[in-house]
Amino acid sequence: MATISVRTRDGELHSFEGRVGASLMENIRNGGFDELLAMCGGCLSCATCHVFVEELPASASLPIPSIDETELIEGSDYRQENSRLSCQIPFDETLSGIVIGIAPED
Ligand code: FES
Questions:
Q1: What atom in ligand 1 is closest to the CA of residue 37?
Q2: Which helix (H) or strand (E) element contains residue 74?
Q3: Which residues are the signal sequence here (predicted)?
């Protein structure tokens, strides 16, 4: 079982089983967290899938953000060092235990 924990904007932490092969964004949306808007559906054009990676499992690594992802995140008032666009992160077993916070809405 590969789990994802999501901190919603009210500060609550929710854990659920993730679907391997789907993006983190798809997993969060499928988990019922509608406050992650993901308006472009993962086309890398909206930045409304912005999350903070609060905890990463020790053996896990994330793909290096593309220039387009970096530029979109730089446009957010809430950008942090651990900011990522969740549509750009494929979820797999190595990420089981990841803790994600949904960024405030820009
Ligand atoms: S869903 Fe639009 S950039 Fe990720």
A1: 1
A2: helix 67-74
A3: none
Domain spans of the chain, in order of start? 2-102
Q: For domain 2-102, say whether CATH 3.10.20.30 is its number.
A: yes
pLDDT of residue 17: 98
pTM, to two decimals: 0.97
Residue 36 CB less than 6 A away from ligand 1 = no
Residue 57, pLDDT score = 97
Cα 69 to ligand 1 centre (Å): 9
- Inter-residue contact 3 to 97 (CB < 8 Å): yes
Distance between CA atoms of residues 71 and 53, nearest Å: 18
37 lines ligand 1 (CB under 6 A): no
The residue whose CB lies within 8 Å of the most ligand 1 atoms, and thus the one to mutate among 66, 76, 87, is 87
Half-sphere exposure for 97 (CA within 13 Å, toward CB): 8
pLDDT tens column, 23-63 = 999 999 999 999 999 999 999 999 999 999 999 999 999 99
